[in-house]
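Posting for a labmate who doesn't have an account.
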Amino acid sequence: MAIVAANTFEHDSRLLRTATALAADGHAVTVVAFAAPGLAVEQTLREGVRVVRVDIDRTVAGALRPLPDGVRGALARALGFEPEATVLPAAPAHGADRLRAPLRRLVEIAAHARRVGPWTDAVVRAAPDAQVFHAKALIALPVIRAAAARTGGGFVYDIADIHTEAARLGRMPAPVRALVRGREAAWVREAAGLTAVSEAVAAEVERRFGVARPVTLLNCPPAWRPDEPGPPASRRLRDTVGVPPEAPIVLYQGGLSVDRGIEELVAALDEPALAETGAVVVLLGYGRLREPLLREAAARPGRLFVLQAVPPSELLEWTASADLCFVGQPPRTLNQRLNLANKLFESLMAGVPVLVAEGTEHCRLVTAEAVGRCCDVDSPRAIAEAAGAMLATPAYERERLRAHCRRVALERYTWEAQQAGLRELYRRLAAGEGQG
């Protein structure tokens, strides 16, 4: 099988876990990812997974070929992005720029469409013997479909997001979203198998596309230090940023992107309810908001820190050194209301309580398991009040909550428990059966 990653495969813990689980179950697994400076073009992970990184044109301006370089560059700048940009600017559009924003997005969509052919060629060259192609990004879905058609194989779509109801695509004009949704629906119905990130997403996919319900595959980490049932002790964050012992740490880890509630968390630091606790906020991750967030940190010395993402194998030790994890993800889109993020389960496995958005599957799970609080994460004041209340509880109560989070994670939310459905799906495919 070939897993097609729409990234460099440095921090994609869901695809890494998928690859290693299937390799351990006897499948020959190749991950085809994007090339990047400093990363091996080809390597074999110790779990037996082969990784091949391919070099294709990922620039947004690639949509404007075959126009000459100078013309492409001028058009890109006129639309508000640099010619070599692979993603669009993170800042919200203001004033006259709001007229250009939809055009930029259409150019980006066109770039994705034009990339399918070269990307498919690269995937088939990297894994010519693959019988099943697997991806979780909508932009990779036509690639695995085309690769499967070319080799006579099948493809599996891992629905980690309802993409047409998420982020910037969810804010595109209705005709554009309808076009993309129609194409996705047709491709989904051709899939040999489907997996989904939560029961709510699986139910929505079944209803929306008229297909058999996908296999639910929660974003849970493997059981971490299972022989230590209590919350593992760690000082990684505290020692790295130099936070004194009495200052509580609020951690956000993951993609530094818009619509995650990150900007509201930063603003919450200035609210009295959180400022009075002496808390610091640490943002651990990567993404298009990194530079703006570094400027915010410079304006709040000693209170806000922005750190580079760490390898998935080290993440839980870093997470365990926090006092509270901010999952965020305000319910601005259907996708945000229905999915369940890696960071929720990683926080619980590390024994750290969480703060999540009201009106979401995150809130439903957190409330049912009593592992944190829900609040209006569109409101900095609400974030500050909820976080401040959690951090102000007596130390013995906070330790008891940490122990409870850890116990819940080890008992119910491990990758070992989740991967059974994935393995069964691929065993049926290996036997020549579909998902059913």
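Reply:
Got it, the structure tokens are right above this. The first strand starts at residue 2 and ends at 4.
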